Amino acid sequence: MGPGVAPATVSGAFPGGHSKGGALHRHGWRVYRRVMRERPLQLAALVLAAGAGSRFSAEPGRKLLAPLEGRPLLAHVLATLREAMPATTIVVLGHGAPAVERAIDWAGEVRVRNPAPALGLASSLQLGIHALEARDEPIDGAFIVLGDQPRLRADVLHALEHAAAIQRPADRPLLVPRYLEDPGPRNPVLLLRPAWPIVDGLQGDRGLGALIDARPDLVLEVETPGSMPDVDRPEDLERL
């Protein structure tokens, strides 16, 4: 298991104000633009896998280990990330972490425990971003991935990366897919590093969803074929 990281403080919802999470880091954008000119982007993956999954099972964390095509749901997500080859992958565990640790065949992913997963998805997001900030290698952005979306596709990750590298969204640090078959889901999210301070202002169980809704001016949508089903209830799994 990777080294423990102190949990982030969950405070101050992001309304676009003047708090740490209320504005983009201007110096960070200058550095980011220079990086884009000088070398390929180095992108990490951050898998949020700490939720209880109470709508799926009364056993906390059981959903991530539910079998699909002979493998746990989380194993499908990790296999796709290995195909996409991010610079590093961090998995934030919480409810049911010991069982998940035992059940998954890990391949170098760094695991971080959320000591208070009941605080919601935002707390895991904060913890994972802080773990990335503490690493030595330069990371320019992170794919925010949900552990209960086993149909994650590498081509979607590559499309977001391509948009960040080619379109150079200097004022739009959140890149999201817009699925042509179902425009509702907006996962995974590519969160570029200058926007990471925004994460500290998030609260609750929506993660980046509230920010995306409140600040469309920060969001670059990338048209993507297909859809992104997730698994909330047993019947969702049956439909996959």
What layout of secondary structure does this protein have?
Blueprint: H1 26-38, E1 43-49, E2 67-68, E3 71-72, H2 73-84, E4 89-93, H3 97-103, E5 110-113, H4 121-133, E6 141-146, H5 154-166, E7 174-179, E8 189-192, H6 209-214, E9 219-224, H7 234-239
Parallel strand pairs: 1-4, 1-6, 4-5, 7-9
Antiparallel strand pairs: 2-3, 6-8, 7-8
Task: Write up this protein.
This protein starts with 25 loop residues before the first helix and ends with a helix. It has one domain: Spore Coat Polysaccharide Biosynthesis Protein SpsA, Chain A, CATH 3.90.550.10. The strands form two sheets. It has a seven-stranded mixed β-sheet, sandwiched between helices. Helix 2 crosses helix 5. The N terminus is likely disordered. It has 240 residues and is α/β, with parallel strands linked by helices. Helices cover 29% and strands 18% of the residues.
The CATH superfamily title: Spore Coat Polysaccharide Biosynthesis Protein SpsA, Chain A
How much helix, percentage-wise, in residues? 25-40%
**Oligomerization category of the chains in this entry:** single chain
> What is the global morphology?
globular
Question: Mind telling me the CATH class?
Answer: Alpha Beta
Structural class: alpha/beta
Regions with pLDDT < 50 over 5+ consecutive residues? Answer: 1-25
Main sheet? 7 strands, mixed
Ends: how far apart? 31 Å
Strand order of the largest sheet: 5-4-1-6-8-7-9
Number of helices: 7
